[in-house]
Amino acid sequence: MSSANDEATELAITDPETAIAIASAVRAGDRSAREVIDTYLDRIAAHDGTIHAFNEVLVDRARARADAVDDTVAAGEDPGPLAGVPVALKDNLCTRGIATTCSSRILEGWLPPYDATVVERIEGAGGVVVGKTNMDEFAMGSSTENSAFGPSRNPHDTSKVPGGSSGGSSAAVAAGFAPLALGSDTGGSIRQPAALCGVVGVKPTYGGVSRFGLVAFSSSLDQIGPFSHTVADAAAMLEVIGGHDERDSTSIPQPVPSVTAALDQGCEGLRVGIIKELSGSGAGDHGVEGIAADVQARVTEAAERLEACGAVVGEASVPAAVYGLSAYYLIAPSEASSNLSRYDGVRYGLRVDGPSTAAMNTASRTAGFGDEVKRRIMLGTYALSSGYYDAYYGKAQRVRTLIIQDFAKAYEQFDVLLSPTSPCTAFELDAKTADPLMMYLNDVCTIPSNLSGDPAMSVPFGTGADGLPIGVQVLAPMLGEVDMFRTAAVLEHEAPAGGAAA
After folding, report:
1. In terms of C-beta density within 10 A (0-12 exposed, 13-18 middle, 19 or more buried), how is residue 144 classed?
2. CA distance 88 to 298
3. pLDDT by residue (tens digit) across 370-413?
4. Which residues belong to the active site?
5. The architecture CATH gives domain 19-262
6. Domain locations in the chain?
7. Low-confidence ranges of the chain (pLDDT < 50)
8. Torsion angle of C-alpha atoms 449, 451, 453, 456, degrees rounded to 10
9. Is the overall model pTM greater than 0.70, yes or no?
10. Nearest to 333, CA basis, from 265, 258, 392, 407
11. Residue 464: which of 496, 420, 427, 501 has the closest Cα?
């Protein structure tokens, strides 16, 4: 791939192994988990110096875990559906005895005394954690440039960002460092980097996957989900990590529906709505601005392919979606202001001494937090302050209710909805860091479903005029993952092989 930057490199893997194929071979004894892990660790060692997908690679731990999987197979037992599959974890998921930094200095030296529920479930299914991935600090960002450890790069063009905040996880999958990864999605932080890196990214229904052990950013919005090369791999991962967890008070008390069983059902008769407010063409005064023409062309093409496969396609309206960005940037910083108050230099993490407790608190937080985190803490604290709560936070919550109601009305007419995932393809490093508003606009299409709590996912669907990946977003009502994955599987099968969008 040519680039204006002569130093740019393409490291995206073109013929990836699937997690399902790896697990099948390991469970059958046709391949050892140790050989699988060594292959992926070698690729990480060779190329992650350029990509910087990982904050820490767990070489010895991964090999020991792979050996344990092989011992289980040798004993005639089944290690589980992810047997021997390398998995990368976003560095805000707690791992017992292993640094969990959230890509922030404030958590310097902290080793969690427990594993997140999703980590327990992955390892219980035979998966092998290979490392902790880079991210925007405390998941606040859309480019993985707000990291205390430096930015990650897009494997399709290393002069470009991988998206954020889960950019390390999306880059790890795109570069072939792991066939599966986990991220967290508060306003699009799985789906947007998935789109920019050309992989599948899923935000499940809020409460469908336990948040126990996820370091909180905005507790009413955060949700954990998978990255993968294929829709089938994402479905397999979701079935492993999903389901009720009594340690998470927001966990839905029912099993996860089997999405894998729906992947070959096609879309005959499925009602698909294109969200006009999130469309870049003809939206006028009723929609968001800034959707690139090549991105919108791919969404239109995706709808046409679905219709050709038997879906009933029409225009859907979610009027309040245009206010999603404004509501989000009051609700999320307000919750972050509360959640991040625990980092005070006393209980754990970085401590900078001072002449008094107050001075020590201030010095520790000043040194420990980056600029974007400080910006959002200040915004959230202001929105929650006396005299402003009703005018800002309270009003934002009322807008959130309108968004929930508008989505519910749309789903009375349609089974799934379509929109762009990101308004543009991957942009240059440093292109938007000086303008926070421009950076925030990258999540304009993904934020509404976080506010509603509904599931949504990004599916790669061709490339843009610059040859970089474009993702189409499939949205569904709460616990509507079956129809969402049905649609995604068809889009994956029908996706253009390459070339620029019209």
Report:
1. buried
2. 29
3. 999 999 999 999 999 988 999 999 999 999 999 999 999 999 99
4. 90, 165, 189
5. Alpha-Beta Complex (3.90)
6. 19-262
7. 1-6, 282-283, 502
8. 10
9. yes
10. 392
11. 501
